Amino acid sequence: MIRQIIYTISFSGLFCSVAAQSVNTSTSAVWAGYFFSAPVSEKWKISGDMQLRSKYGFSQLSQMLIRSGIAYSITPTWTITAGTAYFKSAGQLHLENIYLDEYRLWQENAFQIPINHFTLTNRTRWEERWLQKKAVDGTQSFAYANRWRNKMAVTFPVSPIYVGEIGTECMLVANKTNVVDVLRIFSGIYYMHHKTLSCQLQYMYQCQYKSVGALDYRDNQHIIRFNIYHEFHSKP
Predict the structure, then answer these.
(1) What is the mean pLDDT of residues 161-179?
(2) 188-212 burial: b if 16+ Cβ within 10 Å, else e
């Protein structure tokens, strides 16, 4: 069973990669993030994350984001969440780098399935996005877009303090010629410093489909991620 899941994760990424356009670019990136969750009651909790993302190694800041949500646990392994987010992303105008705002609302359905020593996690998220546009004449506007994304990952113990992970995430949109917006394939390891605090080192391959004028191309990004996960405990 777990082998079939791993094959599904791997081949879904290969299928989308083969179906991509022949025009490609390749970049490297480093992402760092802090993720937290804090219980409000037995069923409710607040969660969120803050991230900094650089491009071409550390040389160019490409994105900053803050995201938060309110989660409700239907069961211990099934959670639904709704939230909001703010992004500031790098763009170009007159061949100069600028930063554009993006506002999001998002809804999420996530569940976990224990399988022997493995845990399968599936997360489906629907996003409503307002992306800032700047025209040559200096005027500004916001374009609205929906995006559906699904993430599937498998975690497994490596030692009493280390947990491995492999997975994939696919993001689909309806307002582009190619409905595949972003494809991610990743693997990493968690260091369980404490039952409420863990650190993650992850490698991610991200295939992002972009358009400049009439040209559609694929940006292949090789990303190293450093993340901290913090789970606050409610007071007794």
Answers:
(1) 89
(2) bbbebeeeeebebebebbbbbbeee
Q: In this predicted structure, what is the pLDDT of residue 215?
A: 64
Looking at the domain assignment, is residue 111 inside a domain? yes
Query: What is the total residue count of the chain?
Result: 236
Query: By three-state DSSP, how is residue 58 classified?
Result: coil
What number is the average pLDDT over the span 87-113? 87
For residue 179, what is the DSSP state?
S
Q: What is the pLDDT of residue 209?
A: 83
- How many domains in the chain? 1
How far does Cα 68 stand from its chain's mean position? 14
CATH value at residue 145: 2.40.160.40
Residue 57's domain comprises 2-231
Among candidates 163, 79, 155, which has minimal Cα distance to 121?
155
The residue to which tokens 């005027």 are assigned: 139
Spatial distance between the Cα atoms of 84 and 104, rounded to a whole number of angstroms: 5
Domain for residue 24, yes or no?
yes
The reply to whether 11 falls in a domain is: yes
| Cα distance between residue 38 and residue 56, in whole Å | 34
pLDDT in tens, 24-82: 788 899 999 999 999 999 999 999 999 999 988 777 899 999 999 999 999 999 999 99
- How many C-beta atoms lie closer than 10 Å to residue 140's C-beta? 10
In this prediction the pTM is 0.86
DSSP letter at 85 equals: E
Residue type, 101: D
Residue 55 lies in a domain: yes
Contact 102, 127 (CB under 8 A): no
